[in-house]
Amino acid sequence: MSGRDLLIGIDAGTSVIKAVAFDLGGRQVAASSVANRYHSGADGAATQSLARTWDDCATALRGLGAKVDGLAARAAALAVTGQGDGTWLVGRDGPVGDAWLWLDARAAPTVARLAGGGADRARFEATGTGLNTCQQGAQMAHMDAHAPDLLDRAQVALHCKDWLYLSLTGVRATDPSEASFTFGDFRTRQYDDAVIAALGLTHRRDLLPPIIDGTQVTHPLTADAARQTGLLAGTPVSLGYVDMVMTALGAGVYGGAAGDVACSTVGSTGVHLRAVRSQDVHLNDQGTGYVICLPIPGIVTQVQTNMAATLNLDWVLGLAAGILSDMGHAVNHRDLVAHIEGWLAQSRPGQIVYHPYISDAGERGPFVNADARAGFVGLSAGHRYPDLIRAVAEGLGMAMRDCYAAMGPLPAELRLTGGAARSRGLRGILSASLNAPVRVSGRDEAGAAGAAMMAAVAIGAYPDMEACIADWVTPLLGDAEIPDPALVAAYDALFPAFAASRRALPPAWDALAAARSLKGHRP
Question: Could you provide one GO biological process annotation from this protein's UniProt record (predicted)?
Fold first, then answer.
């Protein structure tokens, strides 16, 4: 290992694949990225080419090599994480069609059928994870009922990072995090036959790959993968956990001075996590959320996820951009983002409820409803555009609070990453929504860092993950930003209205979904 002073983290997200180099102490050296591409269908499909995803990953690694002198000889190991859920089927001769992504909504009828069955609560209590259309289990059950030929032609069902691990090493495997929240038990980190039976997939059991922990096991980079990536054959490769917990690990969900901390990634989607001991998990009565293992013995994350977070801000800013463009005053997204702080200053807090369910796939946290849609409650003639901006921003805070409330008591400290972390005004809203101080991680690429931390432990650069966190994570946490007491009071008053209206809206969402299904109908 002489001269091998770098670790490479690969983070294959929904929109971008990144390859990032770190030194052994956690300092980011360079990064390379390639835009990811997927296709959406009118039937709710969201699919991605396996072959192109691997090509893009290899391109990102070659790009990193162009930025870092001697990268191949200096790389002590690389690790890979990626977008969670979804179904990436591989057969004897390679991919079986395109992957079904976590955005794919086609399994909604199967989710409704399985969730209504008598075995679903037991499945939830083993996995800690509510059933939704994003998950591989639901998608495979739907395929089994409606497109069994896909599963018949497959030899293994993988996730995104597993597919890239196969492409890098030739090894078919998955990790404890995705295996246990989909098909297993978070306490044992192994598959659970009763869970598989509850999904109606016992006869497909042989499609599930072996489970390996990337802090303990690595496999060598193959000669073919070395040729495509520009790295050296034999370089150790670690299979990371799913990207949600890798990002949270890199951003500070575990460790540091505070005991009761949480970590939210508020980007296009919202991912809200808190690290707890396995025996302290709070399983809510609604049977929603995820329990996802961390690469630390006995520690898991409780997770609730919003399908859309800053996508809501993109939408409301897009309204302004469209109007201005129609009037001959074209503006770009960056110009409008720069005005958010000013618009927030022109509006009063806590006046309008906004439910941020803007995704076409509905919502999955802290409730599951594929027909959920965004909307305002409480508009009056005196409200103006700045009030809408504030309501949308507050909607993100209320949705975050809704998610954390479903996991138990609200956290004492919030560590924040993602696009919202860059705005002081948005940070203030999120902090006050939880009545918790906010600390922002200075880590640029937290997901890739989390994966690389697993490789650091695997090759013995650190004796355990706690020691790695002390160097890679804790020093990068910024000072605590204390919530504004006036905002806290406003949002304590706003949240009951948010929650009550959210609970009352499903019949309206059902009716709207039925109306949308009558394409071309005229009364």
Answer: carbohydrate metabolic process
